[in-house]
Amino acid sequence: MKYMLLIYSDPANEPVYGTPEFGKMMEGYFKLNEKMQAEGAMLSGEGLKEAETSTTLRVRGGKVETMDGPFAETKEHLGGYYLIDVPDLDAALAYAVQIPSAEYGTVEIRPVMDYNPAP
Which of the listed residues 18, 53, 102, 115 has the most CB atoms within 10 Å of its CB? Predict the structure, then answer.
């Protein structure tokens, strides 16, 4: 079953780029990437640029509206994701708990919708 692991954190609580703490966090990500790839679980994963670089789009009454930045003002921002294929939720949780940002942020584990299930 496919799961999306959505990684949220408050930028104020993240290790600062270039510090030893940032290096340790990134090392944790690299190790987890290698592990999930070696175990055949990782389908894809990426970090995202800061929320301020985003553009939000919506269509209302046939009109397209765009705005800079995220639509909702929240402290925690979506910082990255993993798309994994594992047997069940327990296996997804076992990977999610290893995401370094889980120590100061939140990881949302969500099943991916299967629009063409096997009979």
Answer: 102
Q: Report the distance separating Cα 67 and Cα 114, nearest Å.
A: 31
Express as a percent the part of the chain with pLDDT over 90.
78
Q: DSSP character for 80?
A: E
Q: What is the pTM of this model?
A: 0.88
Note down the domain range covering 74: 2-111
Measure the CA–CA gap between 67 and 20, rounded to whole angstroms: 36
Distance between CA atoms of 22 and 19, rounded to whole angstroms? 5
Within a domain: residue 55? yes
Residues 6+ apart with CB under 8 A from 81: 4, 5, 6, 7, 45, 46, 48
